Amino acid sequence: MRRILQSQGAEVVHLGHNRSVREVVAAAVQEDVQGIAISAYQGGHVEYFSYLVELLAERGAEHIKVFGGGGGVIVPEEIELLHSRGVARIFSPADGQQLGLARMINSMIETCDHDLAADTPSSWDGLFAGSEDVLARAITLIEAGRLPADLKTRLEQAARPVPVLGITGTGGSGKSSLTDELVRRFRLDQEDKLRIAVLAIDPTRRRGGGALLGDRIRMNCLEGDRVFFRSLATRRAGSEVPDGLSDAILACKAAGFDLVVVETPGIGQGDAAIVPFVDHSLYVMTPEFGAASQLEKIDMLDFADAVAINKFERRGAEDARRDVARQLVRNREAFGVSWEQMPVFGTSAATFNDDGVTALYQHLRDELVRRGLEVSPGALLPVSGKVSTAASTVVPASKARYLAEIAETVRGYHRATETHVDAVRRAAHLRAARDELAAAGHDTEPISDLLAKAEKHVDGVSAELLEAWPKVVEDYSGDELVVRVRDKEIHTRLTRETLSGNKVRRVALPRYDDEGTLLRFLRKENLPGYFPYTAGVFPFKRDGEDPARMFAGEGDAFRTNRRFKYLSKGSEATRLSTAFDSVTLYGRDPDTPPDVYGKIGTSGVSIATLDDMKALYDGFELTAPTTSVSMTINGPAPTILAFFLNTVVDQRIDAFRAAEGREPTAEEEARLKAWALANVRGTVQADILKEDQGQNTCIFSTEFSLRMMADIQEWFIQQKVRNFYSVSISGYHIAEAGANPISQLAFTLANGFTYVESYLARGMSVDDFAPNLSFFFSNGMDAEYSVIGRVARRIWAVAMRERYGANDRSQKFKYHVQTSGRSLHAQEMDFNDIRTTLQALCALYDNCNSLHTNAYDEAITTPTESSVRRAMAIQLIINKEWGLSSNENPLQGSFVIDELTDLVEEAVLLEFDRLSERGGVLGAMETGYQRGRIQDESMLYEQRKHDGSLPLIGVNTFLPDSGEREHVTIELARATEDEKRSQVDRTRAFAAAHAEQAEPALRRLKEAAQTGENVFAVLMDAARVCTLGQVTEAFFEVGGQYRRNV
């Protein structure tokens, strides 16, 4: 959407996800926009859009047009209602089908193409009183080159002599992040006594005239009314500064700001245009500038008052700082001064509370004081050095090529396979020839010598595999397999009889006569349960427990609890999968502002306290071997997990009280807790890497979130939590964001290996943490989805054994599949079940470990009872009625599956190479590589859907006659008014009841985060007395907020 807007000449201020109405309105007013475009997919849209229109009117900004879209989630009746309340247009799936993206966006631009510069306020007095609205309009006139002469005179007369700080530097150096951190420190240090104006410049595209004004999205320092932020495009200017910059600065000075900050776009070596406009200039660069001689070509090093070498955690940063400082000595001809005295700072703006950034801030503050900035004594403690000292790397520099090494390990394994196959085949041929000669009475000595030499080239492992095969065939050829474990015999049925009287084998064996072909099968495929686990990680599926998950989440905990009980009625196993509302997903407490209130309990369940969690799973024995709980939560996952595990422990203790009629002793309570934690089964998603790449429910800084993930895993190891997965490494949301199956698989596996390297760097043993890792994929309609499970299992097993030396349990790749949400269409919704059935069949054939089938109406609403029943029936029909489901390795032996497996595997390994070239997963994330790939692939899908080259039945082909198009009324799942009100009241009551305990608990939590303790261990106690929102705010203070990306 953003790219098409730009291509049609629009200047786009991208705000990113999870923005409150007040934030959107503040941005719209300060940026003086003509339109606002919002995607709304998680419910609460009626309240959100209505509140937005209301607040715009309050700010006198009724002229700003509001547009929205939400796929089929915003139904026609709601669209009509929102139009009546002043929303310019809500686009429906039918609009998308008829217009296509380009014409939809053209329609938006036409609607809001209004000349703001022609619409001046009746009086400019508000500007001099500090009105943001009037200042914003004055800057609009300046940008248009239409500032009235009399107003300019007034600005010059009113302008205060306040300092201007200029921040410039190379593209990708982190200028916006550093600007955010510096403004944040001004606010903290001066306790919000300063009013600061930030003018952020971005380049205009010469072709089309549009611009991405992408700095505001990076700013976390804008909350409140102390900072005015305005994005500017260069437009007709031939340099990195726009023509009216000096007048825009003048206007900010006249409006009463104490400091003006100007940030330029990325500049080249010969650019220094910012210098004449500012009183003090900061040049931002990274350590990767090439040879030291390149520094002589950088103009800004002649003019910069200070230099920041950002991303100082990178290799070579210390040397870079020395080289730059020496260049400054030469440029300034300050030969009597040591290079260490030069104002060159090493910073890491991506690291929360980085001391290098604080040192730079304190230097700039003091320099600006000399130029007229009025400050009070600072609240921040002085920093003695000039560089970051606490910059930590998630993956050590020595392991930076881990993905390329994994790719080479897998390729090396396959090369070795072919070598072993050739050796075995040669030996087998010679053996057969010798036996033929012997049978014919000929001399066999020469060929026996050749055979002896050939057998020396057959490695021991290959020989063992081939020698063991006849016994495997014998074991699998009967009707029952009997395995003795200790003193117990386990009987497994090997065949299932059809109505026709034929026996279908649960695992069908290959009938290869050639030893080389058999060895290739054993090394590349093997049977389910045998390395490399291509066909499955367990020998047989568990009898009596289908892989179906029961998915629910709507309203409050009580309503979702009732839905869980409805879904699990009559099931031998209870596999509960929980969706949370967007208020919970972003770590907030339920509250009464309309943009929050409208989303409570919509598109998921609202959970804010331990009491909510207990109500959610009331009546389910959470430690039963047949019970498993999955929670789809990421940003605030540590807190939600702490609620859940406390619920598990308390349930066990409550059961003891009920059975024994007394309180447990301290020793008994410890035993009960240990047993509960050792036996609870389930998964929490908690995958922060994929959130940054595709899903957008990050709330804390990436560094802090990754640290929390490692803390959870470390605590799991200490507490012997062996049956609960600490993370579900998810490709599903990457696919939902638009990635094709190759990118989904490659990025997901790469993220998984990044966690492996991260946890190893924390000192954990691979065999202690690998069994706690699980994965989560989407299954769509593309051919590659038929093999992503088998490819993932093989790559994981080979890498874990060959590169990491992991044991058998750690080599087993376990994953959940959810049928594609992206293939659910609002048009001809009944057809969605057909797509879902095919996707489910595909997933089960590929031996997924658990499966969720989407309901056909999820294109529009949270599933209803009837649609969920249909979705569950899809799995039950496949598992109970579909004849071929009697067999558990139906894909093995298929030529096309074999070919696809090899093709997809190599495509994934090539993607590993590309990620490795960019510094691994985290390095690629810095440049937005994964996000860019996902967007490109999403665009291709949308284009081909619209032009019909990708046939979608009922969407762009096989359409009903116009007369047959009927308005279908769908039951909408929405939280009721009583549920919302009750949830707000319950949360407030919990906070009030635990107020005395919460304060010290939160203080202890922040202390643990600041001193390097295991935060999750402390969070387990804090979660008993704190609300979700309280914990989130505490973590913001000590871990930092997530910095959004374009």
From TrEMBL:
Keyword Cytoplasm: no
Binding locations of Mg(2+) 1: 176, 215, 263
EC number: 5.4.99.13, 3.6.5.-
Function: Catalyzes the reversible interconversion of isobutyryl-CoA and n-butyryl-CoA, using radical chemistry. Also exhibits GTPase activity, associated with its G-protein domain (MeaI) that functions as a chaperone that assists cofactor delivery and proper holo-enzyme assembly.
Catalyzed reactions: 2-methylpropanoyl-CoA = butanoyl-CoA; GTP + H2O = GDP + phosphate + H(+)
Positions bound to substrate: 540, 575, 681, 725, 774, 809, 814
Binding site for GTP: 172-177, 218, 310-313, 926, 1045
Record-level Gene Ontology MF annotations: cobalamin binding; GTP binding; GTPase activity; isobutyryl-CoA mutase activity; magnesium ion binding; methylmalonyl-CoA mutase activity; pivalyl-CoA mutase activity
Alphabetical list of PROSITE patterns matching this protein: B12_BINDING (PS51332)
Originating gene: icmF
Cofactor or coenzyme needed: Mg(2+); adenosylcob(III)alamin
Protein name (Swiss-Prot/TrEMBL): Fused isobutyryl-CoA mutase
InterPro entries: Cbl-dep_enz_cat, Cobalamin-bd, Cobalamin-bd_sf, GTPase/Isobutyryl-CoA_mutase, IcmF, IcmF/GTPase_domain, MeMalonylCoA_mutase_a/b_cat, MMCoA_mutase_a_cat
Domain statement: Is composed of four functional domains: the N-terminal 5'-deoxyadenosylcobalamin binding region that is homologous to the small subunit of ICM (IcmB), a middle P-loop GTPase domain (MeaI) that likely acts as a chaperone for ICM, a structured linker region involved in dimer formation, and a C-terminal part that is homologous to the large substrate-binding subunit of ICM (IcmA).
An annotated GO BP: acyl-CoA metabolic process
Recorded family membership: Belongs to the IcmF family.
Pfam families per record: B12-binding, MeaB, MM_CoA_mutase
Binding-site list for Mg(2+) 2: 201-202, 215, 263-264
Region (Linker): 371-532
Subunit note: Homodimer. Heterodimer of an alpha and a beta chain.
Keywords recorded for this protein, A-Z: Chaperone, Cobalamin, Cobalt, GTP-binding, Hydrolase, Isomerase, Magnesium, Metal-binding, Multifunctional enzyme, Nucleotide-binding
Alphabetized Gene3D superfamilies for the sequence: Cobalamin-binding domain (3.40.50.280), Methylmalonyl-CoA mutase (3.20.20.240), P-loop containing nucleotide triphosphate hydrolases (3.40.50.300)
Ranges of residues in domain B12-binding: 1-119
